[in-house]
Amino acid sequence: IEYLGVLGWSRAAPVFLPAGDRKWVVAVERKELVHVRAALALAKENLDVLRVSGTLKGLGVRIKK
Question: Distance (Å, rounded) from C-alpha 55 to C-alpha 12?
Fold first, then answer.
């Protein structure tokens, strides 16, 4: 949030979905994808963007409820 700020965070409208052992799918607005990826790259934690897709089906990930 430090990089994006409150306004950028609200524009990205992130939704976090569990996708397995220590993996998460983060759904964000497509227009804000570049900013979210930059914010994740600047995070102190070791966060990696593995794949980007327009749909959950395209990721090949089953979301756990």
Answer: 16
Three-state SS letters, 1-65: CCCCHHHHHHHHCCEEEEEECCEEEEECCHHHHHHHHHHHHHCCCCCCCCCCCCCHHHHCCCCCC
Computed over its alpha carbons, how large is the radius of gyration of the chain? 12
pTM attached to this predicted model:
0.75
User: Are the beta carbons of 36 and 13 closer than 8 angstroms?
Assistant: no
How many C-beta neighbours within 10 Å does residue 34 have?
9
What is the rounded CA–CA span in Å between residue 24 and residue 27? 10
- Residue 27 β-bridge partners: 15
pLDDT tens, 41-61? Answer: 888 888 888 889 888 788 877
